[in-house]
Design brief:
Layout lengths: L4 E2 L2 E2 L9 E4 L3 H9 L6 E5 L2 H6 L2 H13 E5 L8 H12 L4 E8 L1 H18 L4 E6 L10 E5 L5 E5 L7 E4 L1 H4 L4 H20 L5 H24 L4 H15 L12 H13 L3 H16 L3 H7 L14 H18 L16 H9 L5 H11 L3
Parallel strand pairs: 3-10, 4-5, 4-6, 6-7, 7-10
Antiparallel strand pairs: 1-2, 8-9
Helix pairs in contact: 4-5, 7-8, 7-9, 7-11, 8-9, 10-11, 10-14, 11-13, 12-13, 14-15
């Protein structure tokens, strides 16, 4: 059984093999070494150039590991995890057969790349790498057992395997404080995207999935504006990190297929047009919620968000779902993230391509609805 039901209330949820979750300021200093799987582990760091060149974070982790445990660092992972950079990182890791651990530091691209490297390591050697993740954004890639990367033609692809799920997560507010505000806030909207779409995903269970994502939505609505006003407030940072975790970790091993239409549109808009995934969620989520609310069962799930964001629930699920969409739209504007696909060089001539990629169809009712939705993003 993979689908949950509302009547009767039933379901099945299977967690990933996450073994440790630490959070709080300075948690990397305090807990990184205890996360290593053995006393002789050799760890390889995967990160991006900005963190490596513009912050002291990578050097800090290298120093903590010492020469005994630090096997190397690859800092060339770019936005959307280009396949060429992933190939280079994989080759660097596979040069040393003593490496048993990979440490991802950064946002979704380094984290997904580390998962993909573990997958490739298993293909070559028969063993997966132990993965410690130190996220610096709110994209929540550390919570899934899927690894996305971008082929040379600009199309997003990936692998999925329960064994590439992260083993240990360290949410350190001092690390996340180094993240540029626009990236931090927009990936917070990506987490919102996870939370909302998991509410109406057919394989989402009532417990813990829907109950956790509702608290995630509450935390994101509350603390994203606060974090924008006080970007160095470590309590706000930590609360947002935990909200991001709650937005996606409950998407368990029982889940099948993608999260939902907003994510499908995000993939269609993201790597092909070089739009960050946090921004794609800002573009698509409110409009998708309005479209999905046409289904009464979906509207009933979306409407559940209202009490969690300080609004009373009424008697009409459709109208309540539209209120949720409006709240999302207003939050995007409040965070200063409102934009159009035109701002990213996407013209009306791209609507058929985007709609096809998002729906897998070239015609039909859903294709037409999505095409109209995309036109509204211009």
């Amino acid at each position: 059984m993979t689908e949950s039901t509302e009547s009767p209330l039933s379901g099945y949820w299977a967690p990933t093999h996450l073994k440790r979750l630490y959070y709080g300021p300075s948690s990397v200093d305090e807990h990184l070494m205890s996360c290593l799987p053995t006393k002789n582990s050799k760890a390889f760091i995967i990160t991006g150039s900005s963190l490596a060149k513009k912050t002291p974070l990578i050097q800090q982790v290298e120093a903590l590991l010492t020469k005994k445990h630090h096997a190397g660092t690859f800092s060339g992972i770019g936005q959307h995890a280009p396949a060429q950079q992933l190939d280079e990182a994989t080759e660097a890791v596979q040069k040393d057969s003593d490496i048993d651990t990979i440490i991802s530091i950064g946002g979704g691209s380094p984290i997904d790349s580390a998962k993909a490297i573990s997958y490739r390591s298993h293909e070559k050697t028969g063993r997966y790498l132990y993965h410690i993740s130190i996220p610096t954004t709110l994209s929540a890639a550390e919570c899934s057992f899927m690894a996305g990367y971008t082929k040379e033609n600009g199309v997003k692809t990936g692998v999925a395997d329960p064994e590439i799920a992260v083993d240990a997560i360290i949410y350190d507010a001092k690390f996340a404080a180094q993240t540029p505000q626009k990236l931090w806030l927009s990936t917070g909207m990506r987490a919102m995207d996870h939370a909302i779409e998991l509410l109406y995903n057919p394989t989402s269970t009532e417990a813990p999935t829907k109950q956790l994502v509702l608290t995630a939505a509450a935390g994101l609505f509350t603390y994203l504006p606060k974090s924008k006003a006080e970007p160095e407030n470590e309590d706000y940072i930590t609360r947002l990190q935990l909200a991001a975790w709650s937005s996606l970790y409950p998407y368990g091993l029982n889940a099948k297929g993608g999260l939902g239409l907003s994510h499908s549109l995000g993939y269609a808009l993201g790597s092909p047009y070089s739009i960050p995934h946090g921004i794609t969620s800002c573009l698509t989520l409110a409009s998708v919620v309005k479209l999905k609310a046409e289904n009464p069962e979906v509207a009933a799930q979306i409407a559940r968000v209202l009490p969690f964001i300080g609004q009373p629930r009424g008697t009409d699920d459709y109208k309540d779902a539209l209120k949720v969409a409006d709240a999302i739209d207003n939050l995007v504007k409040e965070l200063g993230l409102a934009c159009t696909i035109t701002d990213y060089g996407v013209g009306e001539d791209q609507i058929p391509k985007i709609s096809n990629m998002a729906t897998g169809a070239k015609e039909g009712d859903m294709y037409d609805k999505v095409a109209r939705l995309v036109k509204g993003l211009l």
